[in-house]
Design a protein that fits this description.
The structure is a single chain. This protein is mainly alpha-helical. It has one domain (14-97). Helices cover 68% and strands 0% of the residues. The chain has helices at 14-33, 36-46, 53-56, 60-71, 74-84, 88-99. The longest helix is centred in the first third of the chain and has 20 residues, at 14-33.
Length: 103
């Protein structure tokens, strides 16, 4: 989900880019949660309970972890990207932003 400048050629601020990255990660979490098998695997790997997902989703570190999970499975990443019309590279860029690896 690229952030588009609001007017002219102004570049998106870091805050705007992080908000877009968070939105992408929340979309990824919804994608994972939309299928019980995918959600079960995610919960088992992360050790988080389903009752904690909403509160965890408020934290950039957790959202970066959602994108890590997605990126760790090429088929899952491709399904997500195709279904949501994202370039898989956007997932990696969003992950870097949320984990603090990118300015």
């Amino acid at each position: 989900m690229p952030v588009r400048p609001r007017s002219g050629t102004r570049k998106a601020t870091l805050h705007e880019r992080r908000e877009a990255a968070s939105a992408l990660a929340i979309t990824a979490l919804s994608f994972i949660a939309s299928e019980p098998e995918r959600l079960g695997r995610f919960l088992a790997l992360t050790g988080i309970g389903p009752e904690s997902l909403r509160s965890a989703a408020r934290h950039p570190g957790f959202l970066a972890g959602v994108l890590d999970h997605l990126a760790s499975d090429d088929q899952l990443l491709r399904e997500f990207a195709e279904q949501n019309e994202f370039d898989p590279e956007q997932v990696m860029k969003a992950r870097e932003l949320l984990s603090g690896e990118s300015p």
